[in-house]
Amino acid sequence: SASSAPILHGYFRSSCSWRVRIAFALKGIEFDQVPVNLIKDGGQQYSEQYKTLNPMQQVPAVEIDGVTLSQSLAVIQYIDETRPGLRLLPADPQKRAQVRMISDIIASGIQPLQNLYVIQKIGTEKVQWAQHFINRGFQALEPILKQTAGKYCVGDEVSMADICLVPQVYNAERFKVDMDQFPTIKRLNQTLLEIEAFNTTHPSCQPDTPADLQK
Amino acid sequence: SASSAPILHGYFRSSCSWRVRIAFALKGIEFDQVPVNLIKDGGQQYSEQYKTLNPMQQVPAVEIDGVTLSQSLAVIQYIDETRPGLRLLPADPQKRAQVRMISDIIASGIQPLQNLYVIQKIGTEKVQWAQHFINRGFQALEPILKQTAGKYCVGDEVSMADICLVPQVYNAERFKVDMDQFPTIKRLNQTLLEIEAFNTTHPSCQPDTPADLQK
């Protein structure tokens, strides 16, 4: 029903699922998780049942307030616009624009080019391909963040930009990108990972995290 | 100065530049265009000068109110939040979420995978690659739009979702995607192209449109 807890259909290691987990945690919203294993059974996201939740056959999909939403930034902004608590976007329009610009550099300019589906389709040189696009994106983000960042990506308030940054750095580390090239990104990531909402939602400690990947 | 007309650095055929042109036109905002030729001189977006405007070295970049913004959806929402006139996102939070979901399926799920830079990097089978990702995205969009659409993508008001849809259909046609598979998308595109703000901003009639591509 519309009044029950939101349901997140996601995968422990999906950076887009992690974004939504952080947003719920920052807002203090209880939610249920239904794991969608992107590897097992040839990819559970390809089932007919899951396709009705997200026709793109990607995670996440979120059932909330009687509707089903996909696309993590749409979900995060919906949560922000309908729930009280910490603001995930600043009140100032220029700061909001900077938060969205940084979020979209990651969500449109980096993540789609290094996600599982595309990497599988590339065939050879998967790691080099992913590294190339993460490096290109981070080379753009680093000077932008040097201008916008305070303690966090935009000023001193946690925002959607931070929610996008941390899972993307996690992906960068999986693909062995040299993070020493990006001191601002590295510093922000370290600061953010100390916040409980980023820490408790980490891929290493989700209900569907395999035992050998748990910390 | 902050009070002068916004400057759009873009390219006639870039779908992300066209999105911003439509948004300005729907809002009735005068703007100046500075062409960035993505082909000439090995790509003018790679110049050191342009890199300061958009470190991702992509179009568009927009100078507005004393700041420089990139990422078309961040620009469009900034315009919407700071300018009067037609709303580009609906007031209702669930409808706003649907508008953002549809916009992001295009802006994160389709366009980045078929843009010039990626297509150039693929090497062989460029057209098949682009067709594959446009087909995959449109196969997801078609059932979503069947549920959300009225006269336009979400209900009967033009929104950011429509601003994203029309330029993506233009790209689909360039890559010879069979649009008869997607009757809802096709119908929406035809309806939208009759609106002046979509028509006057079309790639076929911009200041930098080459003579042989003008209509």
Automatic annotation (TrEMBL), chains A, B:
Catalysed reactions listed for this entry: RX + glutathione = an S-substituted glutathione + a halide anion + H(+); 4-maleylacetoacetate = 4-fumarylacetoacetate
UniProt keywords, alphabetically: Cytoplasm, Isomerase, Phenylalanine catabolism, Transferase, Tyrosine catabolism
Record-annotated GST C-terminal domain positions: 92-211
Name of a matching Pfam family: GST_C
Swiss-Prot/TrEMBL cofactor(s): glutathione
Cross-referenced PANTHER family: MALEYLACETOACETATE ISOMERASE
Official protein name in the record: Maleylacetoacetate isomerase
Organism: Sphaeramia orbicularis (orbiculate cardinalfish)
Gene behind this protein: gstz1
